């Protein structure tokens, strides 16, 4: 495989993961999988929350893909690499910048990063399964639009 194909597969896999994660967050975590995700929308004690099990699942899947990839397919191996890079970006942006779960302070710099953090804070404005906005982790809509959506949603519910 050429270097360019390898880079292309990895990048497509990172972008694909954001779309996949968005869908999982919206339809599974805020759906049938709410049981695990609820812990992330409530105050929890201790360094871990039940929601972290999702990250564990994804790590196991990535490890499996690396093994399968090295045995049978180079393409699969680079997909696994993309998945892992996505996981690291998620850990940096979501756990680091937004929730400050790292043992040291991570400062948010740049307009887009600030928008990303604000958008995810708006996701946490809702503590219930339904009515939340902004399900992406690396991509976020304009904050004003999200606020409008949130407002519209809350009047719908009452
Ligand atoms: Zn959520
Ligand atoms: Zn969060």
TrEMBL record:
Entry keywords, A to Z: Carotenoid biosynthesis, Membrane, Oxidoreductase, Transmembrane, Transmembrane helix
Keyword Cell cycle included in the entry's annotation: no
TM annotation in the entry: 6-24, 52-69, 75-93
Residue ranges of every copy of the Fatty acid hydroxylase domain listed in the record: 11-137
Family matches, as Pfam families: FA_hydroxylase
Annotated InterPro entries: BETA-OHASE-like (IPR045019), Fatty_acid_hydroxylase (IPR006694)
Coiled-coil spans in chain: none
Database matches in PANTHER family: BETA-CAROTENE 3-HYDROXYLASE 1, CHLOROPLASTIC
UniProt similarity note: Belongs to the sterol desaturase family.
Stated name of the protein: Beta-carotene hydroxylase
Species of provenance: Algimonas ampicilliniresistens
Gene: crtZ
């Amino acid at each position: 495989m050429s270097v360019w194909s390898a880079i292309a597969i990895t990048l497509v896999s990172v972008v694909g993961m954001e779309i996949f994660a968005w869908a999982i967050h919206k339809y599974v975590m805020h759906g049938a999988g709410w049981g695990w995700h609820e812990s992330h929308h409530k105050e929890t004690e201790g360094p871990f929350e039940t929601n972290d099990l999702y990250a564990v699942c994804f790590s196991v899947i990535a490890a499996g893909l690396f093994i399968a990839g090295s045995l049978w397919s180079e393409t699969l191996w680079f997909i696994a690499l993309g998945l892992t890079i996505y996981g690291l970006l998620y850990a940096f942006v979501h756990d680091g910048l937004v929730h400050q779960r790292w043992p040291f302070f991570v400062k948010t710099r740049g307009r887009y990063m600030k928008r990303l953090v604000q958008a995810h804070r708006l996701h946490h404005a809702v503590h219930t399964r339904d009515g939340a906005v902004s399900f992406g982790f690396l991509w976020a809509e304009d904050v004003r639009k999200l606020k409008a959506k949130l407002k519209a949603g809350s009047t719908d519910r009452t």
